[in-house]
Amino acid sequence: MREVYEAHFRYVWMSLRRLGVAESDAADATQEVFVVVHRRLATFEGRSALTTWLFGICVRVARDRRRAAQNRRETVAESLHLEGLATDEASAEENVSASQARALLDGILEQMTPSLRVVFVMFELEGLDGETIAEILQVPVGTVRSRMRLARESFQRCVDRLRAREERHG
């Protein structure tokens, strides 16, 4: 269990953030994921990659957190904070640029409905195939394809709006 935790903590944390878990809740949500992992690790059959199994748990934890936040009328949308700026100028610029890109991606993802966001993250960012996504979400593959098409359209609309805004404001 310790090896799984140490090897996959960052992956789980980033997956939860991409799935819309607020940064302030990410640590608790990550702990929830690993509590589930601890309970179920012995039943993991290895039919999929460990990261795929972990991501499925992340999807369910993120969904439950969104529901809880809606019930409390809270928002889960936050921007990412800069993560450990390096000491040299080139590395600092790269870190700022990467942080800005992550914040931009997170902003676009936050505009998607949860059902589209999860499919987009799983396919485009995690590289999972449609059949695996269907299995994790327990929906037909056709539903995954439909949601992916809608998610890509939503993503493109957001990018187009950002470009238009940038052109207007120089």
Question: Which features characterize this protein?
Answer:
170 residues; mainly alpha; Rna Polymerase Sigma Factor, Chain: A; Arc Repressor Mutant, subunit A; 2 domains; 0% strand; globular
Which stretches are low in confidence, meaning pLDDT under 50 for 5 or more residues running? 73-87
| Helicity level | over 70%
Specify the overall morphology.
globular
Write down the overall mean pLDDT: 81
Write down how many β-strands occur, each being a DSSP E stretch of 2 or more residues.
Answer: 0
CATH superfamily of the largest domain: RNA polymerase sigma factor, region 2, helix turn helix motif
Structural classification: mainly alpha
What does the main sheet amount to?
none
